Amino acid sequence: MQILPPALQKVIDSLGTLPGVGPRTAERYAYYLFKSDTMNSKRIADSLINLHDSISYCSKTFALIPADKELSDLYIDPSRNKKLVAVVAEPFDIVALEKTRLYHGTYHVLGGLISPIDGISPDQLHIQALMTRIDEDEVEELILATNASVEGESTALYIQSQIVNKNVKISRLARGLSVGVDLEYADQITLGRALEDRTSL
């Protein structure tokens, strides 16, 4: 016997696939959407339908961009220093660094971190594209802005080993960031200090 209407159960099941959303939370979200204004649910549905068709990746930096563009505004902006590149794991790490208003270089998104236990190897990340960028943009400094985790440190060390023969300064965000904290959730003051006090490797 089915307790809930199939349409509501389908929404609960769909919401339950999101990270950090358990069965009870999914039920609360679904019931809230059912009780709220119909237009609110339609706006959410429309935004999800258009999500994949409206977003793409920058061909240089792998940052998120509108689908009708090829390059990120942060990359083509003439006021940004292309010789300074902050290497981050995910696109939303860019948002965190931009909020500090202290960084004026460009970015390179790896698309994850090296994690053998999760089956993520270096060749699955945008590391080779980074090597190409170093040559094409005549990069002078790489800021390895990966998370202060085992995976973040492993990835930073791997990148460092790959550019040992290139004339590039390598720096790492200072330890203002707590171990295990993702950049996305770091407060702006801590992140700003970590950026200003980055250390050479």
Q: How would you describe the overall organization of this protein?
A:
The chain is α/β, with parallel strands linked by helices and 201 residues long. The protein folds into two domains: 6-49, Helicase, Ruva Protein, domain 3, CATH 1.10.8.420; 59-200, Dna Topoisomerase Vi A Subunit, Chain: A, domain 2. It is 41% helix and 14% strand. The protein has nine helices and seven strands, in the order ααααββαβαβαβαβαβ. It has helices spanning 6-15, 23-35, 38-49, 51-54, 73-76, 91-98, 127-136, 150-162, 188-196, and strands at residues 55-57, 64-66, 81-88, 105-109, 141-144, 169-172, 199-200. The strands form two sheets. It has a five-stranded mixed β-sheet with strand order 4-3-5-6-7. Strands 1-2 form a two-stranded antiparallel ribbon. α1 crosses α2. The radius of gyration is 20 Å and the shape is elongated. It starts with 5 loop residues before the first helix and ends with a strand.
